[in-house]
Structures are given as structure tokens and as C-alpha cells.
Design brief:
Layout lengths: L2 H11 L6 E3 L7 E7 L2 E8 L2 E8 L2 H16 L2
Parallel strand pairs: 1-2
Antiparallel strand pairs: 2-3, 3-4
Length: 76
């Protein structure tokens, strides 16, 4: 999945844009996808403390993971 596809899918799910960041770590409660060295790392930032959720070598895999996580969280 591409970045624009992920943004579109998250919009369809009703996920607020402040709930995620694609490219940089934010200092708020959100999921962040960040390219670091050779990996795409997904962090959940809570109270300004990032926690690594997962890492991928491919950007598309990272975006797939983020969509699956939001779907999982929203189904609870």
C-alpha cells in the first residue's frame, strides 16, 4: 500500500489525521511511521514517549501494518 492509499483508507475509517504521522515522530498520542536507516519503523507515541510497534524493510509493508492496527483498534 502506498502512503496516499493509506491516508485514503484511514479517512474512510474515520481516523483523525492527528492520530497518525507518516514521516516524522510527533509529540502527541499517535502512530508514527518513520524511515530510519534501512528500515521503516512504526511507533506509538504516548505522553511524548515513542514505543516501537514494528519494523519493516519495505515502506508498503509498514503502511499495511498501520492500516491493520487501526482496524484492530477500531473493532474493539
Amino acid at each position: 500500500m502506498t502512503k496516499s492509499e493509506l491516508e485514503r483508507q484511514l479517512g474512510i475509517l474515520g481516523v483523525h489525521p492527528n492520530s497518525y504521522s507518516l514521516g516524522v515522530l510527533k509529540n502527541s498520542d499517535c502512530v508514527c511511521v518513520v524511515h530510519e536507516n534501512t528500515q521503516w519503523n512504526i511507533y506509538y507515541v504516548e505522553r511524548d514517549r515513542p514505543s516501537l510497534l514494528s519494523s519493516f524493510l519495505q515502506e508498503e509493508e509498514a503502511y499495511d501494518f498501520v492500516l491493520k492496527q487501526f482496524k484492530k483498534w477500531l473493532s474493539k
